[in-house]
From TrEMBL:
Record-level GO BP terms: lipid metabolic process
Protein name as it appears in the record: PLIN1 protein
Record keyword Zinc present: no
Gene designation: Plin1
Family: Belongs to the perilipin family.
Length: 102
């Protein structure tokens, strides 16, 4: 089997690009958007939640940056191991390469 993981590649990006995962995410996104459009009260609640999550994410990234920089070599090793594991899963489970509806 040919290794697919490259040094600059992120295992999370690879997982999100799997057809089974990306089609599920697209379906959830469509449902979320249509629910917001159909229910104005739900839309206002969702908007408040989205703003809160964005603020929390920015704060978390800012506070974690020094730690992430120090742990970068360990993250690279863990990412490489995870990519190898994903290579193995993709080889053993062909269904990962198909959208959910298939």
């Amino acid at each position: 089997p040919m290794p697919v993981c490259h040094a600059q590649e992120n295992v999370l990006q690879r997982v999100l690009q799997l057809p089974v995962v990306s089609s599920t995410c697209e379906s959830l996104q469509r449902t979320y958007v249509s629910t917001k459009e159909a229910h104005p009260l739900m839309a206002s609640v969702c908007d408040v939640y989205e703003r809160g999550v964005q603020g929390a994410s920015a704060l978390a990234m800012w506070s974690m940056e020094p730690v992430v920089r120090r742990l970068e070599p360990q993250f690279a090793v863990a990412n490489n191991l995870a990519c190898r594991g994903l290579d193995h899963l993709e080889e053993k489970i062909p269904a990962l390469q198909y959208p959910v509806d298939k």
